[in-house]
């Protein structure tokens, strides 16, 4: 079965616990993965396994190992990250596993870099019988406004509608920029601040300055930003992880799609030269393992790992140094 990302909530409980998430809109892919993870965590799937490209040979073994459940009765979400190119046999062979759609102790989430699929191909036909295929396509203008308003559900209805209009007008067609504004509002909004500007541009250090300083390879300034935020605005921690993840994902995408990667990531043209210089200093071999680190920090920022607050901020500093000291 196939559905649009916006309709995932309607189908998530009707699926066979296998999800194939693809499309050109990276924000919708991120949101879809988060929605699946959150839904099944509430259902008792507390263990997580992430399979990166270098470990694709272990996919079937990992699935079978976790299908029986753990000694402590916990259930597992297995996330498979396909970063580009044709779907490898190790992934398409998942749908050849006997009773793959009847395994109760695991959820399989395949996050693919594919923007389109041919529903007539053999592997897609087999997948369609066992999985929920989530298509994350670019939104039309009216769909953007609905999406933004739904994401602003922490606000009163009237206020959410006003913010949705303003954000949509400011960043029309750029879901990444829209999502950035929503993330900021989640961290800073209160009913008392309704009349304030959407972006707190007067802050000493905006979290988004971190992106500029990292791609400019300005280690000292980037560390100052992280230190200031830790001291004064510690609640911005999850946003810093998002920004660092954006830098790493965009850079990896550039190695695969060149300049198209910047357009898909919503990078301003003025920043592209700095990004290209940054990417030249950071090899694909160096960047790929950092995706796993970002994933771990994301869990830590949500209180879903054993990493302490001090360790979290130290890891942020370590990553800044690693990326800017190329």
Question: What's the SSE blueprint?
Answer:
Elements: E1 2-4, H1 8-11, E2 18-22, H2 26-42, E3 47-51, H3 59-67, E4 76-82, H4 89-92, E5 106-112, H5 122-130, E6 132-135, H6 141-151, H7 157-170, H8 175-188, H9 209-215, H10 219-232, H11 237-257, H12 260-265, H13 272-281, H14 284-301, H15 309-324
Parallel strand pairs: 1-6, 2-5, 2-6, 3-4, 4-5
Helix pairs in contact: 6-7, 9-10, 9-11, 10-15, 11-14, 14-15
Notes on the protein architecture:
- The chain has 326 residues and is an alpha/beta fold.
- It has 3 domains: 2-135, 3-Layer(aba) Sandwich (Rossmann fold); 141-193, no CATH class; 209-324, Up-down Bundle (Zinc Finger, Delta Prime, domain 3), CATH 1.20.272.
- Helix content is 53%, strand content 10%.
- The protein has 15 helices and 6 strands.
- The chain has helices at 8-11, 26-42, 59-67, 89-92, 122-130, 141-151, 157-170, 175-188, 209-215, 219-232, 237-257, 260-265, 272-281, 284-301, 309-324; strands at residues 2-4, 18-22, 47-51, 76-82, 106-112, 132-135.
- The chain has a 6-stranded parallel beta sheet with strand order 1-6-2-5-4-3, sandwiched between helices.
- Helix 3 (59-67) links the parallel strand 3 (47-51) and strand 4.
- The longest helix is centred in the last third of the chain and has 21 residues, at 237-257.
- It starts with a strand and ends with a helix.
